[in-house]
């Protein structure tokens, strides 16, 4: 194993953080050793798992040379660790902007940690700037959450274009791990239209498991818990457990 | 009137574009002359109103000196014009980064157009970078959509901090126009908790009109229509009409 996977999509609010948290936790519950790197200055991944983010974050490792072991925090779930992020990380966007090899900073860190984990997931902010480029450059693959709504289709060409540029210029091994459809709402044709579009675009890369819109998913982070702990019987929890199984099957 | 208002929040998917489109259109239907400037490279505002965005966009005016009149497009709704955006605008982030007065580029344009409209709304991307800073610098006020979900609370301190910096260093007249709560879901306590929090933080600035989660709102852009045209009887349409009235009342 020892794979690094970036979770990216520049469209906002499509379920990047929710997927980072819940897929990682479900894999950990299946016995995989997982690390989540919160790479969004909003720090939603950290707070969604109840992880303190006031100090010892990814920013301190990247730019002030702090020892990575001091920033790895064990979550409440066995086998699932987190390196938190906070608003300081938005400083990195400016500090890295004109530095040579600015897109390789995160890779230096993930290369050190890779052998300790089965999977390292990187949660990105809603943009295609230096933070997401660092994630894509450090990764073996990218997992793309796509909300089944009209606006979510607009940015896909640009996202694929960026992935191809990174593959060409920065990281030749980068692949698309998979595409997961999120926030499905059975009550509307909108979902069907978007779903058909996405499958037409990505084919077999689209996971069969689709994540329904489920209020328990939105509630869980306010308790600092993944949905599979907050409400294991919910359709949201079952969907992410299913996704984790499909993800592992795809690996073999 | 002649007011310029930026719609901003760095959290993704909270209803910035949806509010830009539907508030503008409802004001236009009440007889106000409105211009929407799409200032997000995703170009969701443009496509949500069925506006072509392949050429003559805000990017061409900002950086290649195109005549602004060539880029103002009349929407299907009387009194509502749009200046579209497309992915080229993401180039501006790089091109403006090291330029002196890089935050004043949009203001040069809105200053020319102000007297032609009652309101100019600027739809921003999910970040606090140079595009949103241009929006805040060009504006009389900022309108903040906040999704009633846990993650949406995290970035508020940073957003207010940025507004205060812009007010101090770039635009002393900048005020908070108002805060609108979006995607309310009556079925969960989560909404109540977040709502209480937001009212505690912003007090009277929070509009009494709250926008419910309503599937018609999410469907409308796929027809290139605002919700009040797509389905005027929907709870979503009624809420935005109500918001427009409250917005105007607040002006007087
Ligand atoms: N399947 C779902 N059902 C219901 N709510 C969901 C679902 N997935 C995510 N959410 C909620 O929708 C909101 C947006 O999700 P999330 O924050 O994970 O998206 P994101 O892509 O990480 O956003 P950003 O672009 O700001 O980083 C959150 O409040 C989250 O709790
Ligand atoms: N009240 C609502 N009810 C249901 N769906 C909504 C509502 N408001 C917005 N949406 C849908 O939620 C998604 C996110 O909204 P929108 O794109 O307007 O947010 P945004 O803040 O502009 O996102 P971004 O951060 O990517 O610019 C869209 O698919 C939109 O159609
Ligand atoms: Mg996120
Ligand atoms: Mg938007």
Briefly characterize the structure:
2 copies of one chain form a homodimer. Chain A is α/β, with parallel strands linked by helices and 252 residues long. Chain A has helices at residues 16-29, 44-48, 58-64, 89-97, 105-113, 130-138, 151-154, 156-169, 189-202, 215-219, 227-230, 235-251, and strands at residues 3-7, 34-38, 73-74, 80-83, 119-123, 141-147, 175-182.
Topology:
The structure is a homodimer of 252-residue chains.
Chain A: E1 3-7, H1 16-29, E2 34-38, H2 44-48, H3 58-64, E3 73-74, E4 80-83, H4 89-97, H5 105-113, E5 119-123, H6 130-138, E6 141-147, H7 151-154, H8 156-169, E7 175-182, H9 189-202, H10 215-219, H11 227-230, H12 235-251
Parallel strand pairs in A: 1-5, 1-6, 2-4, 2-5, 6-7
Antiparallel strand pairs in A: 3-4
Helix pairs in contact in A: 1-12, 5-6
Please, could you describe this protein's structure?
Two copies of one chain form a homodimer. In chain A, 44% of the residues lie in helices and 14% in strands. Chain A is of the alpha/beta class. A seven-stranded mixed sheet of chain A has the order 3-4-2-5-1-6-7, with helices on both faces. The longest helix of chain A is centred in the last third of the chain and has 17 residues, at 235-251. In chain A, helix 1 packs across helix 12 and helix 5 packs parallel to helix 6 (130-138). The A-B interface holds A 10-14, 17, 41-44, 47-48, 87, 90, 93, 97, 125-129, 147, 149-151, 154-155, 158, 185, 187-190, 193, 215, 218-219, 221-222 and B 10-14, 17, 41-44, 47-48, 87, 90, 93, 97, 125-129, 147, 149-151, 154-155, 158, 185, 187-190, 193, 215, 218-219, 221-222. The structure holds adenosine-5'-triphosphate (ATP) (2 copies) and magnesium ion (MG) (2 copies). One adenosine-5'-triphosphate (ATP) sits between chains B (12-18, 40, 44, 125-126, 182-183, 211, 213-214, 217-218, 221, 236) and A (11-13, 126, 149, 151).
């Amino acid at each position: 194993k020892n794979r690094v996977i970036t979770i990216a999509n520049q469209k906002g609010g499509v379920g990047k953080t929710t997927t980072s948290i819940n897929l990682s936790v479900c894999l950990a519950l299946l016995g995989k050793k997982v690390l989540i790197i919160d790479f969004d200055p909003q720090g939603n991944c950290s707070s969604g798992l109840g992880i303190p983010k006031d100090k010892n974050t990814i920013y301190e490792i990247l730019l002030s040379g702090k020892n990575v072991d001091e920033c790895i925090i064990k979550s409440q779930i066995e086998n699932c660790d987190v390196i938190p992020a906070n608003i300081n990380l938005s400083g990195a966007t400016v500090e890295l902007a004109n530095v040579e090899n600015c897109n390789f900073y995160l890779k230096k860190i993930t290369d050190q940690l890779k052998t300790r984990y089965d999977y390292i997931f990187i949660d990105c902010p809603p943009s295609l700037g230096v933070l997401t480029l660092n994630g894509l450059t450090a990764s073996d693959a990218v997992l793309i959450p796509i909300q089944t709504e009209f606006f979510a289709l607009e940015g896909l060409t640009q996202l694929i274009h960026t992935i191809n540029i990174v593959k060409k210029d920065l990281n030749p091994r980068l692949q698309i791990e998979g595409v997961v459809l999120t926030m499905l709402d059975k009550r509307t044709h909108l979902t069907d239209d978007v779903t058909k579009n996405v499958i037409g675009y990505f084919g077999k890369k689209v996971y069969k498991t689709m994540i329904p819109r489920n209020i328990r998913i939105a509630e869980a982070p306010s308790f600092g818990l993944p949905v599979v702990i907050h409400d294991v019987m919910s359709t949201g929890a079952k969907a992410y457990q299913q996704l984790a199984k499909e993800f592992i099957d795809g690996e073999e």
